[in-house]
Structure formats: structure tokens, C-alpha cells
Amino acid sequence: MRGGVRSLVVLIGLAALAGFGLRAGPASATVVFDWVAIGDAGNAPDAAANCLGAGCGAVAYEFFVSRHEVTNAQYVEFLNAKAAADPLALYNTNMASHAQGGITRSGVFGSFSYAVKPGFENKPVNFVSFYDALRFTNWLGNGQGGGATETGAYTLLGGTITPSNGASVTRNPGAIAFLPSENEWYKAAYYDGLSASWFDYPTGSNAATVCAAPTATANRANCASAAGGLTDAGAYAGSASPYGTFDQGGNVIEWNEEIVGGTSRGIRGGSWSSSALLLAASFPLSGNPTNENDGFGFRVASVVPEPGTSLLVAIGLAALAARRRP
Q1: Could you tell me if residue 100 is inside a domain?
Q2: What backbone phi and psi angles, to 5 degrees, belong to 188?
Q3: What is the number of domains present in the chain?
């Protein structure tokens, strides 16, 4: 069953339980995600040469991934909750000074506050490191607000910008919200559960994606500077992945959990300024986890979309599972 269909049931369940909007997280939370279900558990892997780790794209379980990359508006909520003093450098000053940065900071140490630049609300956050992404997911899984950044999906030791165990940190059992693994990210981007086959590009196409300004035309993406900078989430309305995610090719290149060469971490999908070649399934990359620039961002994943809603979601999925596939 395709994840795009299942995500509708998940979202309806979340809305009914929360009592307002389509909200991910407890009722007091402010960061909202549109979750896409990635089904077809136990799928066969793609060609091993396409991936940096084992089992290229094979995932033995169902999971959820955010339809869009984490935006400036979502990251600002995190900063205002956790970065009044910002000892972990969750904010990069390039977010304000750079033309593609989308967040400003005001106030003094101990009482910093953050705001989104006008027009950048729905653009993906950038200038974020791998560790910033882990801390954001920990915060989500711990209920947002005053939720911890150093424990949860990931245990980060040392209380320093670069955790003392940063080179070896992996996902903890029972994680609620987390950064996608290489295989989870790859499957959400390139796999078609209906045909049990793989595409070469994250737009449901084997033809090279065309870099272009925002459009509803199929197989287009924000790459090679064709749009002149970052674009809003979902601006390429005709270019979703088979499961229904957007911008897994272009806009910002996305961190994933894969440990590469001892210290580096996996990155996928190319950015607004990179060649269309980087969008291909056959183009795995890695980066220094401390890197922060105008092309680095991330999206989040989850095994269950909201603490306490698993029963409701399970009921919805069971109802859909009873239907025949189209």
C-alpha cells in the first residue's frame, strides 16, 4: 500500500485526537508536520553500489517521514524554546547575514529571541549541522517546549557543541522522532511500493530531473541555481516521490544517520545550487557532521507519528490494509 494513502489516515487520526489542526506532538507542542507513511515493509534492496551502507534502501518495518524538509518556521520554535543562551550553537549567524539564511536573532546572551525573515517561513532551514539535526529530533521526541536536546532518540555526551561521542552516536531503541537512516531516506525517495521497483530520481522518474524554477511540471527540482535560491516546501507540486514526499531532490541536501569513514555522516539529494547529478540514487555523499552552510538541511522521521496515538493509527492502518491494492 502506498504511503501517500496511509498518511491521510494518520493525519485524520492526529487531528481527531489533538482536537485542532493536523498536529504532530502533544497538545502543547507548536511544531507541526505532515507525516507520510512509508509502507511495504521488508522490501528488497536496490543496487548496493548506490548506497554508503548495507542493505541499500531495504527497510524491514513501516515508518513515517515528514513530507517536507524542516522549515525556518519550525526551527525558530526550537530556537526560542532552547537557545536563549545557546551554549550548543544551535543558531548560526549566517542564518541572518546570508541571503539564503532565514532566521534573525535579537536580544542579549541569556535572553536571545529568534524570528523568521519575512518570506522565509516555509523555506527549509539551512546552516544546520548534523548535531543540530539530532538535537532538534531529541527535542521533538521529548515533547518540544522545554524538552531535552541531549537525550532521547540520541544520547549526546559532554554537553558540548560537538558531542564527545559524536563520531559513534547512533539511534537509541524506542526512539519517537529521529533523523532518517540512509536506508529509510533512500526508500522514501526512490522506491515505488506498487511496482516493487526503484527509480533513479526522487520524483518517480528514471529520466534525469530537470533543474527549474517552481512549477507543477513533473520531474523538476530546485537545483543548479535555476530558482535563484531556496524555494518554499512543496513548490514543485508535480514532482513528489512515489510515496508523496517533496524536495528529496534539491532545495537543501539532507543529513542522514549513516556513519561514513569513521567521522563523516551521510547526506543525500543535492541542494539548490548543486548539479542535478547529486539528486540521483547512484550519487551517495558524506560530509563532516559539523558542516553548516547554505545548502545543508534535514527532514525528520518517526516510527509512530505522535506519542499516545499509536492505537488510533494502528486502527486506521488496519482498516486500509483490509482493502485490495489498486
Answers
A1: yes
A2: -60, -30
A3: 1
**Residue 203, C-alpha cell as written in the block:** 520524483
> Could you tell me which residues come within 8 angstroms of residue 23 by beta carbon, excluding any fewer than 6 positions away?
14, 15, 29, 32, 306
pLDDT for the residue numbered 261: 85
CATH code, domain carrying 295: 3.90.1580.10
Residues of the chain with pLDDT under 70: 1-29, 304-326
Contact (Cβ atoms closer than 8 angstroms) between residue 269 and residue 278:
yes
Any domain includes 280? yes
Condensed to tens digits (0 to 9), the pLDDT of residues 60-73 reads 999 999 999 999 99
What is the spatial distance between Cα 169 and Cα 83, in angstroms, rounded to a whole number?
Answer: 22
pTM of the model: 0.87
Burial code (b: 16+ CB inside 10 Å, e: under 16) for 28-64 equals: ebebebbbbbbbbeebebbeeebbbbebbbbbeebbb
The neighbouring-strand residues paired with 198 are 191
Domain span at residue 221 reads 3-321
In a domain, 290, yes or no: yes
Coil/strand/helix, residue 135: helix
Measuring CA to CA, how many Å separate 278 from each of 202, 222, 250?
Answer: 11, 12, 8
Residue 260 lies inside a defined structural domain of this protein: yes
Dist CA 75 CA 82 (whole Å): 11
- At residue 97, φ and ψ (nearest 5 deg) are -85, -25
CB 256 within 8 A of CB 267: yes
